[in-house]
Amino acid sequence: MALEPLAQTLRILHVRPFNPARTAIAEYACHFAKALQLIPGAEVSDFLPPSLSEDLGSGQAREAIRDFVERAAGPLQDASEPVLVHVEEGNALHREFWAGYYLQEVLPRARFFCTIHDPPKFCSNPYRYVATEFGGRTPVRMLNVALTKAAETLVQWRKRRVESRFARRCEGAFALSKTGAETLRRHPLFRGVRVHYLPHVFDLESLGISDFGLRIADSPIRDCGLRTAELGPQHSALSTQHSALSSQSSVLSPQHSALSTQHSALSSQSSALSTQDSALSTQHSALSSQDSVLTVLFCFLNAGKGIETLVDAFEILLDRLEGEAAPARQRLLIFGGVAPGERAARYVAGLGERIAQSRHAARIELRPGFVPDEERDRALAQADVLVLPFPATPVPFSSAGAVRALALGKAVVAARANTIPEVIRHGETGLLFPDNDPAALAEALHALTLDPALRARLGAKARRMIQEHHLPDRVAQALADAYGHSSPSLSAYTNPLT
């Protein structure tokens, strides 16, 4: 879809995280940056460098962000072209929140937009370090407790104040689900802010796959970096050889004609054999698919993800298959990052013990730890079924895991909770089950295990849905409309904070 160019060049500063081990929003931001770059007339740049610490653990770290913003954005105060700032806001994105906040002070004439990944929260607590700084100030324990409580009260007051100031300065806020957009519209913090629903963008090229399902690495057309002029002498020599070979070819043409007739007869026989071979291959593929089915869950490994529900369901499934004497050899792989801290480590250790005690432990593999993108994509590509057992939460966040699973063209089974039903249609692009219900999940897995055609059909429709609604060019159009619709005259704009 061709986009209309903007009336004038628009400089966009994208404020985003980079470390995927800290937050899954970092990977989303890469896909979103691709959509920004597709807006004609827009010059997009990352405002925060990866080298600027993403760990906001002290007041000094916050001041470092302020100093950076003043140095980097100061020259843009007198820019002739309009400046637009788009900030990614999420639970752990304290650095990004403060960068956007200070940019509003340094660039009073700039336009501000934000994506709220965990509506209605900007981030968990911009002042989260304050209580720990007060803790331990005196040797008297009760005084320490009093200081900490006083600090927490101050933090909540300051948090509401700075978030309100930031929200009032934003022209628009985006949510990645319709439920999230409604949550923002009802929340008093976003009163007067234009709220937009934005489809969760996904760039298929990140998987090495084009829009037509062809792996880019396997494409027969590649740019080898050689210009036509550089190949001129080689082309001339090859042309001379080709001319000589053409003369020999005219002499051998009658013999070639006779051989062609024989080859045609052999080709007909070969075609018949190929048809039989294709039919046998189809049968073999179906039997192989039933014989070994790999089910995969990829997510941050912590409590509240429904992982225990999946393990219970997998055990029910295997018991049922054994009772039916079904030939399937089911395997389950659970892998993903682990949050820092003793609590997360204890959870993963307990999960490992739970799996080790299972009668089917040999068929369940747990791989805790951060996984590079290439290794993750390789594991997901080998899956037959992808499971998203996440139970309901108070925050209507968009599931990046669901969008990735659909983009891979895999059969997906997900809990009917949160915003999942917005992207996964039961029986069309995946199967849904009631959250925290191992028996219902086992039933869905059983259907997919014994029906490879169903897996293929769901995967194909899922992939088509991503192509139609979630590719960067589709999202770029929505962004261009939102930026243009709520664009006031820069000369007439006044800062509500002054």
Structure commentary:
- The chain has two domains: 10-201 and 476-492, Rossmann fold; 289-469, Rossmann fold (3-Layer(aba) Sandwich).
- With 498 residues, it is α/β, with parallel strands linked by helices.
- It has helices at residues 25-37, 59-73, 94-106, 130-134, 141-169, 178-186, 232-291, 307-323, 342-356, 373-381, 400-407, 420-423, 438-449, 452-469, 472-485; strands spanning 10-15, 42-46, 83-89, 111-116, 172-175, 194-197, 292-298, 329-336, 364-368, 385-388, 411-415, 431-433.
- Helix content is 48%, strand content 13%.
- The strands form two sheets. It has a six-stranded parallel beta sheet, with helices on both faces. The protein has a six-stranded parallel beta sheet with strand order 9-8-7-10-11-12, sandwiched between helices.
- Mean pLDDT is 79; it is low at 129-136, 209-246, 249-254, 273-290 and 485-498.
Within the largest sheet, what's the order of strands? 2-1-3-4-5-6
Biggest sheet features: 6 strands, parallel
CATH topology of the largest domain: Rossmann fold
Q: Whole-Å distance between the termini?
A: 41 Å
Under CATH at level 1, the class of the largest domain stands as: Alpha Beta
Overall domain count: 2
Helix content: 40-55%
**Main structural class:** alpha/beta
Sequence stretches where pLDDT stays below 50 over 5 or more residues: 129-136, 209-246, 249-254, 273-290, 485-498
CATH second-level architecture of the largest domain: 3-Layer(aba) Sandwich
State mean pLDDT (0 to 100 scale).
79
